[in-house]
What we know:
About 25% of the residues lie in helices and about 30% in strands. By secondary structure, the protein is an alpha/beta fold. It is globular.
Amino acid sequence: MKTTITAKKMQIPQNFTEYAESRINAKLSKFFGDEADAKIVISEIKNQIILELTVKYNSIIFRAERTAVDKNDALDDAIDKIIRQIRKNKTKIEKRLKDTAFIDSFAEPVDEQIDYEVIKHKKFKMRPMDIEEAILQMNMLGHSFFMFTNAETGEINVVYKREEGNYAVLEPEND
């Protein structure tokens, strides 16, 4: 598994790089093939480490963000969160991961299978707008996300409110 570590406004010690690569390979390699790509983005705000771990494999993206005082603890928590995501959605994703990934990976049985039920379909007209107007519309509607046509690009985007109160935009990426 290829691992990339990026630091924002801080230095990464070599021992953390080695620790991260060994932990990711030890805990996640049983689920993903060699083509998997793990990216770690780490930053520090007010003596807290914010670590984002993203694993991409076979067009599936797993993402975990954790905050801790120690880099190693944040990484371990993020890895555990991704494993929980895999366990929770086991039947939905096992065909996309390695064929043998789930044979012996979890000793305890999963009691429930999650079925996703779509209870509503909604159609609406989208007019071009900039990101700031989309955020304003989202807030006025009281929603946590808002889909819109980006006036600059002409693409469909989604703006959403993150847990820490900031906003983010999802944009399509053409291969």
